[in-house]
Fold this sequence. Notes:
Blueprint: H1 6-32, H2 35-43, E1 61-65, E2 71-74, E3 78-79, E4 87-88, E5 97-102, E6 109-114, E7 120-125, E8 135-138, E9 143-147
Antiparallel strand pairs: 1-2, 1-9, 3-4, 4-8, 5-6, 6-7, 7-8
Amino acid sequence: MRFVNPANLFIYILFAITIGDDLRMEKKTEKKLTPLQIDVTQNCGTEPAFNNKYWDNKKPGIYVDIVSGEPLFCSIHKYDSGSGWPSFYKTINRTTIKESDDFELGYKRVELKAIKSNSHLGHVFDDGPEITGKRYCINSASLEFIPKEEMESRGYKDYLILFKNSK
Length: 167
């Protein structure tokens, strides 16, 4: 009988979980996403300004990653930047988004990707409102909006606290 070293067992389990998550993500991506959503999230595409789903959405709720469902932004942090894309001055949780330098247009921008799905979201700029100075400029195609009244039934009850002091 062959025994597995406990240290290696941990690595095997971690690998299996990671592969499983990747496969589930791929299946969800293939099944659910539109061609525009695939282009934006998987190929770093950009949707047209002022011609996208959430640029002027003013309803209370949260915005989640269209691929993984991971909560990313809250409507109370959304503002009209005049850019034609949904803009936020902060994220719900800084650990859900990773930043990387992007020189695709010949100058430095900071690209944003969701940690869990590695989906392209948009870019962050240092010209936002005074409260943070940040403008998270996000493609609607990378997001799904969960209205406040549906958050509990859709599994986002813990995020209702974000609206505790809002009207």
